[in-house]
Amino acid sequence: MKSTAGPPTIPSLPRELRSVPLRTIAPVATLALLVFAGWLAWKGMVLPMLAALACAAPAALATWLVHRRAAQLSSAGLLLCLANVAGCLLAAGELGHRALPWALLALMANFFLVHNRIATPANLVMVAGLLAMPGVLRTPAPDTQALVVIALILGFGFRFSRRLQGDRTRLELLASQDELTGLPNRRALEKTLLQQIGSARQGRFRHALVILDIDHFKDVNDRYGHTAGDNALVELAAILRLELREQDKVFRFGGEEFVILAEAGTRDALAGFTERLRESVQRSLHGPGGGITISLGAAMYAGEQYWQDWFSRADAALYLAKGNGRNSVVIADDLA
């Protein structure tokens, strides 16, 4: 496998879902505030115009942050929420009751931009500001209809955003879990390796990557059917869970391949760990045709910048283990 030109982008499902309203609302809010500033300038209202530009600045920054390759959604959402609150209060101060429709939109939008614990107090501050301004929600008596609508928006927005947050979490779990074995899948592996590369390069851990697959797995499927193959995968996953230490992580990479991210202080510790796994599987894993074995390739982290290069070394070791007659272990560090 050739070295990659740059690190891959592994999208997180909740982040992707959250980025949709941010990518839509941020430029619209920026444009609206700039148009409002232009209107104020046309009216000759210099100080309010400068205030509107000051509100547009964080909205513009949020637009830039959310459209970057490594989007900073939390920062962008917070900036946009603040711009919404400040901009709506400014508009209400200048336009009075006519600014109320924009305030209602901002109240709902904030629930999609930031977490409830931020959106709720921000919206309450906005409502308190609107109530404090004569001619907005008090004309001169309280506008009961508008207050009821605001209460409904706050209630439904809070409830809906909480439900949406729970759905995001469940979708992320489904997207990161192998349905057959219940193990984390390739998506979860890539995300974990990206994080691990950063930790390992800071010298906080000494990790190894172990790739293993079932020997002659195609023969099991061809002779005894895919149900037998699925059973072998499920049983292997159970054995690996039992044998791994608490600090180790196992993933199903695809097909009959599994990947283990293991703490290993030395090459000898890694060799002992992988040999113990091989022997345990040889003793415990059986199919309709008898015992089933695995081959393993392992590589200590050697300062690679991209996880694919680290993975490639372990994969090359697995290829040699297969070539050595299978049911064997090869450590990539011995090949240098």
Outline of this structure?
The protein has 336 residues and is an alpha+beta fold. It is built from 11 helices and 7 strands. It has 2 domains: 163 residues, no CATH class; 149 residues, Alpha-Beta Plaits (2-Layer Sandwich).
Oligomer: single chain
What's the overall geometry?
A: elongated
For the record, the count of structural domains works out to: 2
Largest sheet: 5 strands, mixed
Radius of gyration: 29 Å
> How big a fraction of the residues is strand?
5-15%
Distance between the termini: 16 Å
Q: How would you classify the helix and strand content by structural class?
A: alpha+beta
Low-pLDDT parts are: 1-11
* Count of alpha and pi helical runs: 11
Order of SSEs: HHHHHHHEHHEEHEEEHE
Spatial order of strands in the largest sheet: 2-3-1-6-7
Average of per-residue pLDDT values: 86
Which range best describes the helical content: under 10%, 10-25%, 25-40%, 40-55%, 55-70% or over 70%?
55-70%
Question: What is the secondary structure topology, with strand pairs?
Answer:
Layout: H1 13-42, H2 46-66, H3 73-95, H4 100-113, H5 116-132, H6 144-175, H7 186-201, E1 207-214, H8 217-224, H9 226-243, E2 249-254, E3 257-263, H10 267-284, E4 286-287, E5 290-291, E6 294-300, H11 307-323, E7 329-331
Parallel strand pairs: 6-7
Antiparallel strand pairs: 1-3, 1-6, 2-3, 4-5
Helix pairs in contact: 1-2, 1-3, 2-3, 3-4, 3-5, 4-5, 4-6, 5-6, 8-9, 9-10
